[in-house]
Specification:
five-stranded mixed β-barrel; OB fold (Dihydrolipoamide Acetyltransferase, E2P); 35 strands; five-stranded mixed barrel; EC 3.1.13.1; 6 domains
C-alpha cells in the first residue's frame, strides 16, 4: 500500500504543488492520483502528475502504466493530453444559473448532460472587486470549474468568464387564424404559452407564418396578448426554419447600431506599410454562389538553380486586421459571434456586409489590401522556406471551382482561356508537387461525402446532392493548409503568442472501442502510445470497395477527437502536422484575425497588430471561439433536420431506402441517403426476437436467432411520424435482420457482454 505524503492527509486543503518534500521511494496510491487530477484539472497531464508526486526514472514508467490502467477501466478519460475523471465536469463549461443557496450564493447546473444521474451543482464565485462579469439567476455563462471535494454542498465552484447574451423579450411562434376569425400564436417551444393577437397588431402576418412577437403583460383572466414584430416567412420556408435555429442556439444575428455605424465610417486601406503586388495575376477560386472572396492564389516555377523542379506558391488573404482593430465595437461583435454561420440559403456573417462583402472581399479588378505568404517547395513537395508580406493586390479573375476545372480539362471559356497557360496550368503543376508532400505526410483520409441541400425559389427543399469533389477543390485546400502551417511556424519562430488549431489523437478509451469493433470484422488495429493517421489509413484502404467501407469510415470518424482553438500547441492529428493555425479565412473566423494580428506585430508590418491585452486573453478567446464553432455546427445541423422533416411531412407511410447511422440500447438511427436526414426506429418496434445491444460491434442482435442490424447497414424503412418543428422523424423497419459478421465465438462473446450490460441500470432491451 502506498504511504501517505508527509504533512498531507485526506481532506488537507493544500494542493500537491505545495505539499512537503516526499521520500525518494514514494509511489502514490490510485486514490491519491485520482484526487490530484480532480483538484488540478488544468495541470493533469502525465508530466504534471509525475512532477507533483516527485516521480523519476522507473517511477514515471510505473505512473504511465497506472494511468493507462485507469483509462482502460473507464475511470479516467483523456482530452488534449489532460486526464479527467469520467463523468467529471469539464474545467471550462457552459452553466445555467438556476437559483441561490441560503447564503445568497448563485447556484448553477451544466447546460449539457455530464455522465449519468443528477447533474452536479456548481457554486458561482463573483469577483469582489466588481470588475468581472456579474451574472444573475436565469443567465447562461461560460465558467472555469473547480471541484470542492466537500462531502456536502455543491460539487464544484465556478469562476465566470463570460455571460452569454440574453434573449430579448421577443419570442417565436406560428401565426394561426382560428375558425372564429381570431388570431393566435402557437409557440415553437413547449414552455411558451399560447398568445392572442388583436387585429391591429397583426402586422401583415398570414396563417402559417413564423413570426417574432412581443408578449404583453399577462392579464388576470384569459390568455396573454402579443403584437407581431416581424414576419419571418412561411413555416415551410428555409428562412423561417433557420431563424428557429438562430434563436434556439442564441446566435447573434442583428448587428447593433454602433457596429453598423463603425463599419460605414471605415475608409479604404491605403498603400502605407504595403508592397505593391497589383501586377501579380492572383486569382480567386470559390463556389459559384460565393458572395465574399478572402483568398487568392498564384504559382510559378522556381527559377533558382539550387531547386530544380521546384515551385513558388503564393497565397494572399484579405487584410481584415486593417479594418477591425482590437477593442472597437466591430471587434467586440466579431468575437461574440466567433465565426459566420452558414445555412442552406442564409448566412449569419461574423462581420457586417460593408466589411465582408466590400472592403475585404478580393473583388476582381479592384485594389484590395492583403496579407500574403510566398512559399518555396522542392520538387518532392517539401517546403524549403516562406515569407510574409503586407500588400495591395488586384485579383486578375474571379473563378468558380467548376469553371477552373473545366479549363484544365480542355474546355476553357472567355475568362479562363486567356489565363490558362500563364495562371491556371502553373497552379495545377504546383498542386501536383504539393500533393507529393501531402502523400508523404499521410494525413487522415476519410471518405465521407458531404451533401448539399438545393432549395426551390420558395425556400423549400428541391433535392439533396453530393457535389463532385474536383482537383480544383483539393488544390485550394492544400494551398490553404500550407499557408496555415507557414503562419504557425513564423509566429513560433518569432516567439509570438497565437491561437493554434489543435486536434488531439483519439483517447485510449476511443482507441480501444474502435479496436473491439474492428475485431468483429476480422480487422486489427495495433496498440501503441503514439497513434498515427497512417494506421487508420491502412484500415480504410483495406476495406476500400468492400460492403463495409462506409461502416468502417463512419466508425473511424467517430473515434476521432474534436478540433478546437488553443494557445497551447498539441499539434493537429488529422492533418498529421506538428503546428497548425487558421490564417486563411479572417472574414468568417475570429481565430484567423488573431493570427493576422500576431503576424503583423511579430514582423513589424504596420498598425493593427496583436496587443498585450489580447495576448493575456488568448486562452479565454480560444475557449470562446471553440464554443461558437460548436454552436454554429449544431444550428446548421438542426436547420437541415427541420427542413427535411417539413419536406417529408406529406409522405407519411412512404417507403425509403436508408442506412443505419447510429445504434443504441433504445433503438436504431437511420439516415435517408437521398436527403441526408436522420430518423429513429425504437427497439420496441423491432419484431420477432429479443434484441440485445452490442456496443463493440455497433449492433442490435436477436437473442434467439443471432441475426440483427449493424451500423451502416442498408435497409428499407417506412415513415410513420414527423415532428417538423423538432426536426424529428420516426420510422418502421421493413428489412429483415441479417446474420452479423464474425464467428460463433465472437457472437457468444458479444452476447455475454450484452447480458452483463443488462445487469447494469439503464438497459432497455425489448422482446417482440
Amino acid at each position: 500500500m502506498a504511504r501517505r505524503i508527509t504533512g498531507r492527509s485526506h481532506g488537507d486543503p493544500r494542493t500537491a504543488d505545495t505539499r512537503a518534500k516526499v521520500k525518494d521511494d514514494y509511489r502514490p496510491s490510485r486514490d491519491e492520483i485520482l484526487r490530484y487530477i480532480a483538484e488540478n484539472p488544468d495541470r493533469a497531464g502525465k508530466r504534471d502528475i509525475a512532477k507533483a508526486f516527485a516521480l523519476r526514472g522507473d517511477d514515471r514508467i510505473w505512473l504511465k502504466d497506472i494511468l493507462r490502467d485507469l483509462q482502460d477501466e473507464g475511470v479516467l478519460t483523456k482530452e488534449r493530453k489532460k486526464l479527467a475523471r469520467v463523468g467529471a465536469l469539464p474545467h471550462v463549461a457552459v452553466l445555467d444559473i438556476f437559483g441561490r443557496d441560503g447564503d445568497g450564493i448563485l447556484l448553477a447546473h451544466p447546460a449539457e448532460a455530464v455522465g449519468t444521474g443528477e447533474p452536479p451543482v456548481v457554486s458561482i464565485r463573483v469577483s469582489r472587486s466588481g470588475n468581472g462579469p456579474a451574472p444573475g439567476i436565469g443567465d447562461r455563462v461560460l465558467a472555469k470549474t473547480f471541484p470542492t471535494n466537500e462531502a456536502t454542498g455543491p460539487a464544484y465552484t465556478g469562476r465566470v468568464m463570460k455571460i452569454f447574451e440574453k434573449r430579448s423579450d421577443a419570442v417565436l411562434g406560428v401565426f394561426r387564424i382560428l375558425q372564429d376569425g381570431t388570431f393566435r400564436i402557437e409557440p415553437v417551444e413547449r414552455r411558451q404559452p399560447e398568445l392572442i393577437v388583436d387585429k391591429e397588431f397583426q402586422n401583415g402576418a398570414r396563417n402559417g407564418d413564423l413570426v417574432e412577437v412581443e408578449p404583453a403583460r399577462a392579464s388576470r383572466y384569459g390568455l396573454p396578448r402579443a403584437k407581431v414584430l416581424n414576419v419571418l416567412g412561411s413555416l415551410t420556408s428555409e428562412k423561417a426554419v433557420s431563424m428557429i435555429a438562430i434563436h434556439a442556439h442564441d446566435i447573434p444575428h442583428i448587428f447593433p447600431a454602433d457596429v453598423i455605424a463603425e463599419s460605414e465610417a471605415v475608409k479604404p486601406a491605403t498603400m502605407d506599410h504595403r508592397e505593391d503586388w497589383r501586377d501579380l495575376p492572383l486569382v480567386t477560386i470559390d463556389p459559384a454562389d460565393a458572395k465574399d472572396h478572402d483568398d487568392a492564389v498564384f504559382a510559378t516555377p522556381d527559377l533558382d538553380e539550387k531547386n530544380p523542379g521546384g515551385v513558388v506558391a503564393t497565397v494572399a488573404i484579405a487584410d481584415v486586421a486593417a479594418y477591425i482593430r482590437y477593442g472597437t465595437a466591430l471587434d467586440r461583435e466579431a468575437l461574440k459571434r466567433g465565426n459566420s454561420v452558414y445555412f442552406p440559403d442564409r448566412v449569419v456573417p461574423m462581420l457586417p456586409e460593408r466589411i465582408s462583402n466590400d472592403l475585404c472581399s478580393l473583388r476582381e479588378g479592384q485594389d484590395r489590401p492583403a496579407l500574403a505568404v510566398r512559399m518555396v517547395f522542392s520538387a518532392g513537395g517539401r517546403k524549403l522556406r516562406h515569407s510574409f508580406h503586407r500588400v495591395m493586390m488586384k485579383s486578375a479573375a474571379k473563378l468558380a471551382y467548376q469553371q477552373a476545372q473545366a479549363a484544365i480539362d480542355g474546355v476553357p471559356d472567355e475568362k479562363t482561356g486567356p489565363i490558362l497557360d500563364t495562371v491556371l496550368k502553373p497552379l495545377w503543376d504546383a498542386y501536383a508537387i504539393l500533393k507529393r508532400g501531402r502523400d508523404g505526410r499521410q494525413p487522415l483520409e476519410l471518405d465521407l461525402p458531404e451533401r448539399k441541400i438545393l432549395l426551390k425559389p420558395d425556400g423549400t427543399v428541391d433535392r439533396v446532392i453530393v457535389p463532385e469533389r474536383l482537383d480544383a477543390h483539393k488544390l485550394i485546400e492544400e494551398f490553404m493548409i500550407q499557408a496555415n502551417v507557414a503562419a504557425a511556424e513564423t509566429l513560433e519562430a518569432k516567439k509570438q503568442a497565437l491561437v493554434y488549431r489543435v486536434h488531439d489523437a483519439p483517447s485510449l478509451a476511443k482507441q480501444e472501442s474502435l479496436r473491439e469493433f474492428l475485431q468483429t470484422l476480422g480487422l486489427s488495429l495495433a496498440r501503441g502510445a503514439q497513434m498515427r493517421p497512417s494506421q487508420f489509413n491502412g484500415i480504410l484502404e483495406g476495406v476500400r470497395g468492400a460492403d463495409n467501407e462506409g461502416l468502417v469510415n463512419e466508425v473511424v470518424l467517430r473515434s476521432q477527437s474534436q478540433a478546437e482553438y488553443s494557445p497551447k500547441n498539441i499539434g493537429h492529428f488529422g492533418l498529421n502536422l506538428r503546428r497548425y493555425a487558421h490564417f486563411t479565412s479572417p472574414i468568417r473566423r475570429y481565430a484567423d484575425l488573431i493570427v493576422h494580428r500576431g503576424l503583423i506585430a511579430a514582423l513589424g508590418l504596420g498598425p493593427g497588430g496583436l496587443t498585450q491585452d489580447e495576448e493575456a486573453r488568448l486562452e479565454d478567446i480560444g475557449v470562446l471561439i471553440s464554443a461558437t464553432e460548436r454552436r454554429a455546427m449544431a444550428a446548421e445541423r438542426d436547420t437541415v433536420d427541420r427542413l427535411i422533416a417539413a419536406y417529408l411531412a406529406e409522405r407519411i407511410d412512404d417507403r425509403f431506402d436508408a442506412r443505419i447511422s447510429g445504434v443504441t440500447k433504445s433503438g436504431l438511427f437511420v439516415q435517408l441517403p437521398q436527403y441526408g436526414a436522420d430518423g429513429f426506429i425504437p427497439v420496441s418496434t423491432l419484431n420477432g426476437d429479443y434484441y440485445i445491444y452490442d456496443e463493440a460491434a455497433r449492433s442490435l442482435f436477436g437473442e434467439r436467432s443471432g441475426k440483427g442490424y449493424q451500423l451502416a447497414d442498408r435497409v428499407e424503412v417506412r415513415l410513420v411520424e414527423v415532428a417538423p418543428m423538432a426536426g424529428a422523424m420516426r420510422f418502421e423497419m421493413l428489412t429483415d435482420p441479417k446474420p452479423l459478421p464474425g464467428s460463433k465465438r465472437s457472437f457468444h462473446k458479444a452476447k455475454g457482454r450484452a447480458r452483463a450490460s443488462q445487469s447494469r441500470p439503464g438497459f432497455r432491451g425489448r422482446r417482440r
